[in-house]
Amino acid sequence: MYITDYQSPVGILTLESDGENLTGVYYAGQLNKDNPNLEKVNQDEQEIFKKVSTWLDAYFKGKNPEINFPYKAAGTEFREQVWNELAKIPYGETVTYGEIAKKLAEKRGKKKMSAQAVGGAVGSNPISIIIPCHRVVGQDNSLTGYGGGIETKKQLLACEHHNLDDFKE
Fold first, then answer.
1. Which CATH number fits domain 77-166: 1.10.1040.10, 1.10.1760.20, 1.10.10.10, 2.40.110.10?
2. What is the pLDDT of residue 47?
3. What's the pLDDT score for residue 36?
4. How far apart are CA 79 and CA 117, in angstroms?
5. CATH topology for 2-60?
6. What confidence tier does 13 reach under pLDDT thresholds 50, 70, 90?
7. What's the Cα-to-Cα distance from 143 to each of 48, 52, 105, 123, 162, rounded to whole Å?
8. Is 133 assigned a catalytic role?
9. Residues 46-74 pLDDT 10s
10. What is the pTM of this model?
11. Residue 72 half-sphere exposure, CB side, CA atoms within 13 Å?
12. Which of 2, 33, 93, 132 is deepest in the core (most CB within 10 A)?
C-alpha cells in the first residue's frame, strides 16, 4: 500500500492506494503511518494520487468534479452496502441516517433497519470526502459526529454551497 499527504483547507489528508485504486482518505491521526506495509511516496509518483489531488483541488474550490479514478473501500458486506448508498448522495444534498437505513431495509427485504447501525458503518468509511459521509445528518438536520470533526464537516458542506444556518449542532 502507498500513502501520500495532501494539503487541504481542512488540514493534511493522507491518501492511500493499492497502486491502482484509491483505498483511503484519512484525516490527521486516523491512520497509523508507521505501519510497515505502507510506503510513503510523492503525489506525482502514483497516477492515482495525481488524479485524486486534482479532484480534491477542484472540490475545495467549490466545484463538483466528476470522479475519474477508481476507488475501492474494503469492509463487511453491510458496510460496503452503506458506503455504496453514500456514494449516491448528490453533491450539495444531504440525507439522514434514517433515510439510508430505510433504503437498505427495502433492498434487503426487511421492514426496517437501525439508523444506529448505519451510523456505525458511515463512521467507518475509509474514503472520506470521495465517499461523502459528510452529507449524512441527523433526523432533525443536526450535524452529528464526523471523523474529521464537526468543524470539518461544516467546511465540507460549505464547499458544496450549503447554508450552514440550515443545520443544528
1. 1.10.10.10
2. 95
3. 77
4. 9
5. Double Stranded RNA Binding Domain (3.30.160)
6. very high
7. 31, 26, 24, 13, 13
8. yes
9. 999 999 999 999 999 999 999 999 999 99
10. 0.91
11. 8
12. 132
